Amino acid sequence: MLNKKLDLEAIKDQFNNQGYVAIENILEDGYVKRIAQSIYKEITWELCYLSENGPVSISAEELSKYTPQQSSQLNQNIMAMAQKGFSYFYYRSDLVNSTNKVLQEFYQDLRGEEFLNFCRNVTGELTINNLNGQLASFSPGCFLRKHTDKTDKEKRAAAYVFNFTPIWNNDWGGLLHMLDGEQTILDIIEPFFNSLTIFKVPALHYVSQVANYARGKRYTATGWLLME
């Protein structure tokens, strides 16, 4: 699964110094290509966004029945919510309960000792014993506003983001921004193919809106490393 040539000590040092680390060439070449092809060609996506009443998901089938007027109203509602503060708009697919065999194997590998032990070593959090996850697709207009990932619902040690985007131009948006307590940008992380970002929770961050002229989609597998 993991690239055998990773420099674990350098990765640990970066995480300890910054509270986050971006790792290139994280997965073995053939392994990552199988996952990427399944994500590109075999996944059914649902639109998700935050409404005034909470999270909303709309299936692809339901969305295909929307009239132009309904689609326009939906977009207005999403943008109105985003103007108020934390909000999001992107497309998702469940990784935990995926029926795709390649992605089922990927999720089981993520929960296996090789990856969990790697995450324990990187973060120094030895009580990490599980994780959750979803697949996310950011197309033009999609965004994730500022937040910290902190919650009382589960014990999150850190967040992880695997990038499966084949080609990305950094002026298309869709970039992960890491912030400090004063909301100053510390770093901007591009979604390079076969890279992994891990950051402590809580950590203030956001994903910039994807430009309307972007000629691609930003694909990730993301979730949280959970403690006992």
UniProtKB/TrEMBL annotation:
Domain Prolyl 3,4-dihydroxylase TPA1/OFD1 N-terminal: 134-225
BP GO annotations: regulation of translational termination
GO terms, molecular function: peptidyl-proline dioxygenase activity
One Gene Ontology cellular component: cytoplasm
The organism's place on the tree of life at top rank: Bacteria
UniProt name for this protein: Prolyl 3,4-dihydroxylase TPA1/OFD1 N-terminal domain-containing protein
Protein's organism: endosymbiont of Galathealinum brachiosum
